[in-house]
Amino acid sequence: MEKFISYFKLSRAEIGKVIFPTKEQIRNAFITVFAVVAIVSLFLALVDLIMSFTVSKLA
Q1: Is 50 a member of any domain?
Q2: Biggest CA-to-CA distance, the chain
Q3: Could you give the number of structural domains in the chain?
Q4: Which pLDDT band, with edges at 50, 70 and 90, does 58 fall under?
Q5: Is the model's pLDDT at 25 over the cut of 90?
Q6: How far is Cα 28 from Cα 21, in angstroms, rounded to an integer?
Q7: Which residue range(s) make up the domain with 36?
Q8: If you compute the radius of gyration of the chain from its CA atoms, what whole number of angstroms results?
Q9: From CA 55, how far away is CA 11, in angstroms rounded?
Q10: Rounded to 10 degrees, what is the CA torsion of 42, 44, 45, 51?
Q11: Percent of the chain with pLDDT over 90
Q12: Is 1 contained in some domain?
């Protein structure tokens, strides 16, 4: 039982060391991820369009 109590005490101490992100940091990360995904999606759509057009002209 002593190990169990010690485990929870150490766990609580470790949780106290954790630095949680602020709302602003979360929002900035979300905007960054959204922008990168949108740009990559547009790039891949453009490459797909070009390749589809090229293949249709060759066939």
Answers
A1: yes
A2: 76
A3: 1
A4: confident
A5: yes
A6: 11
A7: 19-59
A8: 25
A9: 59
A10: 150
A11: 93
A12: no
* Residue 31 tokens, joined: 């905007």
| Side chain identity, residue 19 | I
Question: Is position 9 within any domain?
Answer: no
Q: Which residue has the tokens 């453009």?
A: 46
> If you count them, how many residues does the chain have?
59
User: Tokens standing for 37?
Assistant: 């995904």
Query: What are the DSSP E strand ranges found in the chain?
Result: none
Q: Which pLDDT band, with edges at 50, 70 and 90, does 53 fall under?
A: very high
Give the predicted TM-score (pTM) of the model: 0.66
Query: Tokens standing for 34?
Result: 């959204």
Q: How far apart are CA 18 and CA 12, in angstroms?
A: 10
> Does residue 59 have a pLDDT over 90?
no
